[in-house]
Amino acid sequence: MSNEAEFQPFDLLSCLGAGVDAFPTHSLFSMEIGPSGPLARISAISEDGRRLFLEFRNGTSGSADGSEPFEFEVGDVVVMVTEDGDTSFVEMPPSCWPDEPWIGVVRLKLNDITLIESGGRLRRVPTSGEVDYEESNTVEAGDHSGVQRVLSPEPIRAMDFPGVADIGGRFLVSDDSNLTFDDFGGAQPVVARARELIELPLQVRRAPIRNRSPADQRRALYWSSWYREDDAGARHRE
């Protein structure tokens, strides 16, 4: 007698002709499938306890009424089971409803709630005592669990905007630049008008009123509306 196991080929065509019972089966363990249905979480309960307000994973909401008060609490995860036209609820572990995490920057931390800026809007979450975080921290949080962990002590944004000092530095001119009228840029009429607006008050200030032409006197009244000049050219504040 040989010690090697004899190979028996499996005839698929004969099994198909004989039916499903002809297929070989191997039962490793026995299992029982429980009731199934839509997964929901209880968002609120009426004062008498006979109405449940539910939220589902697809974003919809609903309610359920009972003849007797329900023995559930807000936040419990349940499965809606419908059998023979009757609907019942089976409580499930909280882990069956994972709290989807998102990223944001802590803007305000109070004893009971925390405001986190995420996606350009403020989101309200419960203050978590399990994680040590502060304002301006970049954190990972959930709507119901609150802050889960700190990603960075500094605020991280999707877009980095330059600071005020960085923007202003591009327009500042140092005192030792020694700029003159020749440094004006732009169209020639604009440059000429700019020189006129700058030079005219200087000329009016130096020339006595009696030696000015009528046009210059009118300009003097315009540019010296805050001051009064006598014939000697002295300026007096009105």
Number of helices: 4
CATH first level of the largest domain: Mainly Beta
Shape category? elongated
Helical residue percent band: 10-25%
Largest sheet: 5 strands, antiparallel
Counting structural domains, the number is 3
List the secondary-structure elements in sequence, H or E: HEEEEEEEEEEHHHEE
Distance between the ends: 131 Å
Q: What integer value in Å does the Rg equal?
A: 41 Å
CATH architecture of the largest domain: Beta Barrel
Mean of all residue-level pLDDT scores: 76
Please mark out the parts with pLDDT under 50 across 5 or more consecutive residues, or reply none.
Answer: 1-8
Secondary-structure-derived class: alpha+beta
Please indicate the percent range of residues in DSSP E strands (runs of 2 or more). 25-35%
CATH topological fold name of the largest domain: OB fold (Dihydrolipoamide Acetyltransferase, E2P)
Care to count the β-strands?
12
Order of strands side by side in the largest beta sheet? Answer: 3-2-1-4-5
